[in-house]
């Protein structure tokens, strides 16, 4: 008899198992390797021989693996005539174990790509192979990226909590990567953020979770069966995940009530206003513009001003939107696409078609490029070129 | 976390500073050049930035569809083709600046006289998947 392995529930055990090893005195890098080996062993053995206590099994196997590696290392050190001591119990981190891991894996000394990779492995419990496939790089490259990241943070002592904003940036990056590979990074980011929200009380963590849930809710309607992008205004809203929308809005409202506004809460508020509109025409663009004004006060990210100009175009008409766009750096990605859209709304189809074609040449993704090319082609065909 | 193609041209790029054809180098200079390229790739593997590296044979054939039930038409190779790709390296890096930095290092590969070639490499960003958050 073999039972199917519930991968998500196995992976959710990883941070706890890792924390036990570290608490027993293992250094982070070696403990993390040992847990990864135990995880691979579990994947091999559990379908035929499921353990009664999954967490206990992982702790025991990981600890044995850690000791094997430590002994091999110690005997090598002895051969090299260096002192080898038994692993001594180390300091116990004075914060929640999971939270401590989040902070370590998003440590500011790491580059964004290494923080992402380390978080997915040590907190998310993904294998190196899965992470490599998600980011479309060779497994050896990802293995190196992770081991370098571990070396970078190996000396870090987390005697006080880190900055939660660094963790949120890493989780946002994972979410925004989407779902191109065979690992669903967006769903993984939601899972990791949900778990973070359970161990730390911070309105911006709630804000990010709400933002993710509200965007995740639209996922089924974001692409057509042929893989092409469906813009928000044309999405089939009956396919939005109403449970995720309701959960996202609930989380956001509770966060906003605490009156400590931050970037992610404001972004989630925009997403909530879209989610609330039964049809695209009924979108409350005036409120959306107000939220973009809030966002502009919170961050100097120029993309906010670009999105605000598009929202102004919906609230006050395309001329007002184009006027707002003149204050935005034209070098921004999607600036030309926004201009094309506003000119189309204004009825200047020749300019719009030309700008859509130009925006397609500047697009950063294949789906976006194809979408913009189709819009240019549609306008050109309608004008009977 | 973006992929870039570092493209090496046989022809079509502006002339390198140390522009001596490879067959005029000493055998040791050729070996030093190849070792530099291999070391560079190995270093990128170690930093977790390497995706792929390939070299191409200089001569290719043009092929096109010639209608239902007919074999494809071939033509070439054309000796006069203006642009000729020698090979590429694909990197996955945190920033555009890092891509430029690495291309600069690769361009410093030694050539004739053991001096850097200073060849022009073309850096081209990959198109990626669209971001999840769009507004």
From TrEMBL, chain B:
The entry's family comment says: Belongs to the YciI family.
Question: Which domain of life does this protein belong to?
Answer: Bacteria
**Residues in YCII-related domain copies:** 4-107
Q: Which SUPFAM superfamilies match?
A: Dimeric alpha+beta barrel
Under what name is this protein listed?
Answer: YciI family protein
PANTHER family per record: BLL7171 PROTEIN, BLL7171 PROTEIN-RELATED
Q: What Pfam families does this protein's entry cite?
A: YCII
